[in-house]
## 1
Amino acid sequence: DSGVTQTPKHLITATGQRVTLRCSPRSGDLSVYWYQQSLDQGLQFLIQYYNGEERAKGNILERFSAQQFPDLHSELNLSSLELGDSALYFCASSPSGTGYDEAFFGQGTRLTVV
Amino acid sequence: SQQGEEDPQALSIQEGENATMNCSYKTSINNLQWYRQNSGRGLVHLILIRSNEREKHSGRLRVTLDTSKKSSSLLITASRAADTASYFCATDLNNTDKLIFGTGTRLQVFP
């Protein structure tokens, strides 16, 4: 158990809908990363938050947004969903998020858009 | 875009054999990390090597880093069927805080 909790584990929704994925980082970790992994693909970096503020941005679509709350949990919001958004979404946390730390991954949320 | 490219994309070996995976990256880095992913599960950190280190060991794992060639290799010795998984390298991109993953090597170890 990595200590990172993601909910829900599975999500099935229709095109055009909006969903929210939730991540609780390990106790004490200030940094949260979000990644998207499509079938049999590598991990695409979406966005990183550190202590409530956006730290780095990757190839995140405008339809997607995220935030990190004062209690350090994070949410990834996906709107106007398309079939191509079906993927595994991973959250990871690290103590400082400077690139010097190992990242601890949650088990992911499997999103299926139908 | 990916920072790292793993090679080979897929590797099949027998138990007891060694497995070598390579990672090439594009920019300067502070460190390089290797992760393992069992099918559809979260990634698990294996080892971190800093840019001023050339080699690191952890159990049956040996990682090398050549910053002049912008490449790293992961060697798993005496492989076991339980080593079957995908292996990814990850780096901070151009000394930023982004942690960018490569495309991965899928390793299959046959009993």
## 2
Amino acid sequence: DTAVSQTPKYLVTQMGNDKSIKCEQNLGHDTMYWYKQDSKKFLKIMFSYNNKELIINETVPNRFSPKSPDKAHLNLHINSLELGDSAVYFCASSPAQGLNQPQHFGDGTRLSIL
Amino acid sequence: GDSVTQMEGPVTLSEEAFLTINCTYTATGYPSLFWYVQYPGEGLQLLLKATKADDKGSNKGFEATYRKETTSFHLEKGSVQVSDSAVYFCARGGTSYGKLTFGQGTILTVHP
């Protein structure tokens, strides 16, 4: 009964490869997010979708392309992986776009670029 | 723009010590304020929240009060346990689209 689930949990790959991370939420939420957490634990929002529509894109390189086939899923595809992409990527969801809504996080995908 | 500043870590305490983690935020708009906790190998979990000035959020013995006059939302716990060892994040709601702005996180280690 996991609320926000991400796959895979670990991803080790070579520089230059293309990879995808999947996220699903079963909470019935309208809004989903992708965050990147660096080695110093700093969290930065990358994207947000509301009901399949992109609403936040925080100056992320266009090698990163989110896709939301429906409001319960938000996947992240990364082209031409670089060493600096090594991080933990978190998916999150919230009930709506409102200011007072807490977000529910997945357990993260640990991406390591060799 | 919106920002949140937390006290520098890491913080190391003995069990049953008093904990304070300072957090201040930029005062644009009327944001909700949150504390999240991240246990090792896991995602962030909401610990507590406050939606307006003078509100006190509390959960699991942790408390934080929304202080508009000092733009602060400090996290406190009277007696920490080893199981409280984690990374703690202060966050403020955004002015649009449900965006949260996080502080840099504070690593807490509690020794027996």
